[in-house]
Each structure stands twice: as structure tokens, then as C-alpha cells.
Amino acid sequence: MKVPMKRSILLFFMTISYVMAGQPKATMLYKGENIFEKHFDDQAEVDDIMDLRKHTKGTVKNGVMVTIPPSVHVVGTPHLFTIVATDKAQGDKLGLVEVFDATEASPDDAQNRLVNLATRGFVGLGDEVLIGGFIVDGGGDSKLLIRGVGPALSLPQFGGLDSDDALSDPKITLRKTEFPPDAPPFSTFIDENDDWESAGNSEEIDEISDRVGAQLLPEGGKDTALLIDLTPGLYTFVMEGVDSDTGVGIVEVFLAD
Fold first, then answer.
1. Confidence band (pLDDT; 50, 70, 90) for 21?
2. What's the total number of domains in the chain?
3. The CATH number of the domain where 255 resides is what?
4. 12: CB partners within 8 A, 6+ apart
5. Which domain holds residue 47?
6. 248 has which bridge partners?
């Protein structure tokens, strides 16, 4: 998660199934140091959460308001934070981390926003694919760079993961959720990619990746990417393995305007 300036962040973590007996814990790191840790044994900071339910359409189970510490407030300088979601009892369960920007709008709001989100996790089969979601807001289209990184994770600049553990052949699919007034929500297919160099705008993907500070994807690799203009709305992108491939992957979305 990359934040350019002083922000208040509404951070949520919840078990996907409310009947699970898990005890979720969220930890926020900055430059490798723990700056925030919260166990959600019960509903936390109820007043703040209830006041901000409008950001989540009332879906919050566990949550907390997090304000980026003053020590990292440097105007105009991006800051990279990591949120680690675990189970307090060391259980192995599915979970969901959500980040909502709860800062009030300001005259320089265009420069005062979240600009990148990324999630690393295991990409399995069926319900165990890796899913990312985001909301495009505002009065016009936004250009976004969306990537699914798998085999490149074995390179030093991507963390040097053991190549046997990394997803060797990922594919990403982007969908938009529509909310008709008198019918149930439904999703529509937007785009997909399997091997980033197969995209018609691969040269621009390379240029934009460099401009937004993303590690460049290796030439000839099987990592995936989409560079696309999107209208305001709710989007989901799914990372899965080609031919039932499984392994560790990263889904990323960068604001590229």
C-alpha cells in the first residue's frame, strides 16, 4: 500500500465466513517496523466504525481507524506500508483485508490519496484463487495499471522467492460489478491477460510501470498486466494459474493518471 501524504486510513480485517472460530489480527509495518497491531477478539472502536459505515455500505464486522503516524508525514513523498493479516491462534483460514480512504476531501485532494495497493498470497484452485478489488471514484475515467506477478517473484528485485514456490504461469481477469436499481448486482467481463507482452500496449505498460515506481516485469516472462482506462465503479480482478497451476503470487493495482 503506497500513500503519498498525510492520511487517515480505515483498515478492516475479517474472516470470510462469520461462523469460523478464527481470531483475526492485523499488523501495519513501515520500513520493517511495527507501527500498529490490533487483535479483533470483539468489535473494536465501535464509534469510529459506525460513523464511517458509509464508506463500506454497512458490511463491516471488525475494523479500526488507523492514522499514519506524524513521523512519516512528508508532504509530496510517497510512503510504502505493509499490512499483515494473520490468525491470532495461528489457524489457517481465508481472510479479507480492506482499506478505505477516510480522509475528508481537500483542495489538493488529487495529490492526497492512495496510489497503489498490492496483495501477496497463495494462488490455489477453485475458491482459493487470489482476488483483488478496488473502487474507481470521481467524475471521469481513471487510468490504472493492474498486474499479476508470479514467476518474477523468484528474482531478487521481487523478493527472491524460491522458484518452486512461485506461481509459474498466472492469468488475470478484470470484472466490473453493476448495481441496477431494480435488480440484483451482477458482474460484467472487462478484460483479461495471460503474459503481459501479449497486450497490444505492452510498451506503454513498461513505461508506466517505470513511471509509477513498479519493478519492471522481465521480458519473455509469463507475468501478467493490464493498462486500462476505467469508468467510476466497483471492480474485481482475479489471479489464477493457467492449466491448474498453483503457487505464490502478487496482485497489484497502480493509479497511472
1. very low
2. 2
3. 2.60.120.380
4. 56, 60, 61, 62, 63, 64, 96, 97, 98, 99, 100
5. 1-114
6. 122, 166
> Are residue 97 and residue 191 in the same domain, yes or no?
no
- When pLDDT is cut at 50, 70 and 90, the band that residue 19 belongs to is very low
Reported pTM: 0.74
113 grid coordinates: 490519496
As given in the structure block, the three cell numbers for residue 90 are: 495461528
Contact 224, 115 (CB under 8 A): no
Nearest to 69 by CA among 6, 21, 3, 136: 6
Q: What percent of the chain has pLDDT over 70?
A: 61
C-alpha cell at 27: 499488523
For residues 73 and 24, state if they share a domain: yes
Residue with cell 497490444: 200
Q: Which residues pair with 49 in a beta bridge?
A: none
Answer yes or no: do 138 and 249 share one domain: yes
The beta strands (E) that lie in the chain are given as 2-3, 8-15, 24-30, 33-39, 63-67, 79-87, 95-101, 116-123, 130-136, 142-149, 170-178, 186-193, 224-230, 233-241, 247-255
Distance CA 252, CA 238 (A): 11
**Which grid coordinates are listed for 226?**
493490464
